[in-house]
Amino acid sequence: MRVAPVDIAGLAKLILSPECKSIAVLTGAGVSVASGIPDFRSPGGMYDTLCPDLITATPAQRNAMKHEPMAVVTWEMFEQNSFPYMEVRRPFILGTKNHQWKATIAHRFFELLHVKTNKLTRIFTQNIDGLDHQCKKIPTEKIVNVHGSISSASCEGCGTKMDFVKFCEAVETNIKDIYNPESGPKESTPILCGNCKKPLVKPTTVLFGRSLPSQFFERVQEDLPNLDLLIVAGTSLVVSPANSLCYSVPQSTVRVIVNQEPVGEELGIDYSPESTHDFFAQGKCDDVFLELIIALGWLDDLNVKDLPPSSAKLVQENTAN
Ligand SMILES: [Zn+2]
């Protein structure tokens, strides 16, 4: 018997039904695209536009980045040379400090889900942008930053925290701007840890090759056994162990995939007409979640002035007719 909805109206009904008591969300870069933050993996994203020749690195390190741009976000590279990571992330760090990006319709939907139904058990976000935390009505403990966050800083070597504003000032004066050489210093100089004096201070994001926060594993164990609905939004589901949520939920859990194309088939997401527990809500995250907000009758609760321009425009287009 099919228990998954077949359309957005059905999903709205499921969310409001008394049988659905616990809802978790797994998000990726797609939920933040409307804020203007580049999706690292998309054309025009960080990996696509990376110019290793501009980065402060040895020829061997540049070759490694040419071969695999993701080398920039590995512990192996950072431990040898922190500049590639710091130079590539510089605009993202300073944009975060300047509150350049706003939470999208998708983020606000999760906030409304908590406020209106009290069924939001957890948001597992793979994003490091911290936009979930702009939604102040979501209690902080409900948000798990699976891959850490760019909006705080600490030493990767000894763990000593650094004040984020002080860290950003150091980034402005010490790290060269590879995207706009006119601004910032001509050469990068290390930002040293106040405790161990090593040049390993960085935002508290999880580098490849480092372990995830223990909170992730604890919350997964705690939340998943009783989950009625898992919403997977804007993620390609290629990064483990975050993607393991998909197949770790009980058989009875309904899984909803919000994405532009099917993802996670190899993880067991069933896109066939015979699927009983999976629903594919195809589209951009903001489009799908706005439709869902309208179906739930929550549109009046969406505060347009809190949204990024493209999201606000989308709401206005949908309310004008
Ligand atoms: Zn240190």
From TrEMBL:
Q: What highest taxon heads this organism's lineage?
A: Eukaryota
Q: Gene3D superfamilies recorded for this chain? A: SIR2/SIRT2 'Small Domain, TPP-binding domain
Q: Which GO terms describe its molecular function?
A: histone deacetylase activity, NAD-dependent; metal ion binding; NAD+ binding
Keywords assigned by UniProt, alphabetized: Metal-binding, NAD, Transferase, Zinc
Say yes or no: keyword NAD present: yes
Record-level GO cellular component terms: nucleus
Q: Which InterPro entries match?
A: DHS-like_NAD/FAD-binding_dom, NAD-dep_sirtuin_deacylases, Sirtuin, Sirtuin_cat_small_dom_sf, Ssirtuin_cat_dom
- Binding residues for Zn(2+): C155, C158, C193, C196
Per the Swiss-Prot or TrEMBL record, the active site comprises H147
User: Which cofactor(s) are needed, names only?
Assistant: Zn(2+)
Domain Deacetylase sirtuin-type stretches: 1-299
Q: Which SUPFAM superfamilies match?
A: DHS-like NAD/FAD-binding domain (SSF52467)
Q: What is this protein called?
A: Dependent histone deacetylase SIR2
